[in-house]
Amino acid sequence: MSSLERDNPPPRRKSCEACRAAKRRCDLALPTCFRCSQRGLACAYPGLPPDQIPGLLGLLNEPERPKQFIFDAPVFDLPAVDAVQPSPLQYQPQGTAAVVYLNDQQEMTHVRTSNPVLWSALMSSRFEYPVDTLKDVPRMMVMENQTPWSHPELYSDGMPKVMQDAYACCALYITKNRINGPMITSHIHSRHQELALSPLPTTPTELLAHSHALILYQIMHLFDADLNAAGTAASTSILSMSALESTTSLLFNSTHFPHTQQPPLTLPPTTMNFWKLWILEESARRTIIVALFLIQVLRIFRGDTDIRCDGKLGVLHSWYFSAHLWTACTAYDFAAAWTEKGHFIVHNANFDQVLEEAQPEDVDDLGKMLLVTSRGVDVIRDWFFRRGAIL
Question: Where is the signal peptide (predicted)?
Answer without folding.
Answer: none
